[in-house]
What we know:
Blueprint: E1 2-6, H1 10-21, E2 25-29, H2 33-40, H3 51-60, E3 64-67, H4 70-74, E4 79-82, H5 97-109, E5 115-118, H6 126-141, E6 148-151, H7 161-166, E7 171-174, H8 178-188, E8 198-201, H9 203-234, H10 238-246, H11 267-279, H12 286-298, H13 301-310, E9 317-321, H14 336-346, E10 350-354, H15 359-365, H16 367-371, E11 375-377, E12 390-393, H17 405-411, E13 416-419, H18 426-431, E14 435-438
Parallel strand pairs: 1-2, 1-4, 2-3, 4-5, 5-6, 7-8, 9-10, 9-12, 10-11, 12-13, 13-14
Bound molecules: nicotinamide-adenine-dinucleotide and uridine-5'-diphosphate-glucose.
Keywords: NAD, Oxidoreductase
GO biological process, one term: UDP-glucuronate biosynthetic process
Enzyme class: oxidoreductase
Amino acid sequence: xxxxxxxxxxxxxxxxxxxxxxxxxxxxxxxxxxxxxxxxxxxxxxxxxxxxxxxxxxxxxxxxxxxxxxxxxxxxxxxxxxxxxxxxxxxxxxxxxxxxxxxxxxxxxxxxxxxxxxxxxxxxxxxxxxxxxxxxxxxxxxxxxxxxxxxxxxxxxxxxxxxxxxxxxxxxxxxxxxxxxxxxxxxxxxxxxxxxxxxxxxxxxxxxxxxxxxxxxxxxxxxxxxxxxxxxxxxxxxxxxxxxxxxxxxxxxxxxxxxxxxxxxxxxxxxxxxxxxxxxxxxxxxxxxxxxxxxxxxxxxxxxxxxxxxxxxxxxxxxxxxxxxxxxxxxxxxxxxxxxxxxxxxxxxxxxxxxxxxxxxxxxxxxxxxxxxxxxxxxxxxxxxxxxxxxxxxxxxxxxxxxxxxxxxxxxxxxxxxxxxxxxxxxxxxxxxxxxxxxxxxxxxxxxxxxxxxx
Length: 455
Ligand SMILES: NC(=O)c1ccc[n+]([C@@H]2O[C@H](COP(=O)([O-])OP(=O)(O)OC[C@H]3O[C@@H](n4cnc5c(N)ncnc54)[C@H](O)[C@@H]3O)[C@@H](O)[C@H]2O)c1
Ligand SMILES: O=c1ccn([C@@H]2O[C@H](COP(=O)(O)OP(=O)(O)O[C@H]3O[C@H](CO)[C@@H](O)[C@H](O)[C@H]3O)[C@@H](O)[C@H]2O)c(=O)[nH]1
């Protein structure tokens, strides 16, 4: 099939390369000349395991092409995916102006009917808006055809994006057009060979499904983080509780890991967008407000623990392992590391940090601190520990799972490990002379509850 993908970010590139890998001819467009030039040389502008190999193979095979010319790239396309950004506007709502701009351009320039697919995460009603923008242009140009708009939200996770796309749990197609459904089913058929995991529904339901999925996952994380806080008060280990509840099949083990909060380009933004969608109908959505508030609070957990253990942090040197919002990516958008770095740097602490992928992005965000030497971004995780008053683990990269604890204890000035992702066993750490502070797993005896008089 001849496909065009508009937007060469995480979603656009993964979509394009995976469809090309299945034998389709895919043209990719982006407004960034720099991005397109790099892609034409086979260089990925994003950090995503496996993406560069897919780009190179499919470029060489002639199934993949990159350009900045939308009209040219769409001239023979049967299916056109819109995978541009939908960032938060000032009020928290999803800004769909990039989608609308693409739709207008397509309406003005397409000389054949196409299936236009909204892949970006966008509020309920966006696909209908794209349809009316296209319809309006067709009427203006007095052409005889109508484009068909499908909502096809994407569920990939950064760091595992190719695997998620190649083996999706489900493919959601929002359309009531039988022809469009047939073409889209055929396109996705190679990815759902074992059994049909394609779910067809209305465009509005497809859009809502994406927001409901993300906000539900975020709710699970904030829920376990709240339970973890209570565990800290009660002297209970939340890791035991996690296993205890996760083994109930109705709950399951996924997305119930307590930590220092969720970040990334999706959960925070999509919760804000969902709240704004609801606000238009005067819906208060108290659950989602709490999910968001709990997450903000959770991101301050590492700082609170450092203060509890060390007192005043002014003049202290702190080591951080992991700056990306999760392992497998260089993405620092809404990462818990930003909350900690902002506070430590403003409070006069020095930071020595290591991340396998995200250091460049952090350097761009804190250029002054890097220049003045207050923030050192190191190439070696153990070099970050030299004379530090504590090690704070924020991202659970695999290489941090079994570090040389003897070296950790030797390098640190104070043997304190703040484990923001519950990676380490408190007993093992204690046996090595390291004080370990995990999320929701204090080993202290339970404190007395505040007793209230029963009336
Ligand atoms: N990142 C993820 O893990 C993920 C997963 C699922 C869904 N989503 C959603 O998918 C959408 C895209 O996310 P992303 O992370 O790929 O964004 P991104 O910012 O990485 O990429 C978007 C790209 O679109 C380009 N672009 C903007 N306007 C354009 C135009 N008019 N023509 C051509 N290119 C244009 C930008 O230059 C950029 O390269 C968002 O709605 C996001 O919420 C993201
Ligand atoms: O039990 C858990 C699981 C995750 N996280 C955190 O949650 C955030 C998001 O993680 P993850 O969902 O793995 O990453 P994303 O790449 O943001 O993917 C989410 O957002 C995408 C964009 O919409 C969706 O497509 C994916 O399905 C959805 O998982 C990260 O900060 C994680 O550290 C936890 O704290 N505890």
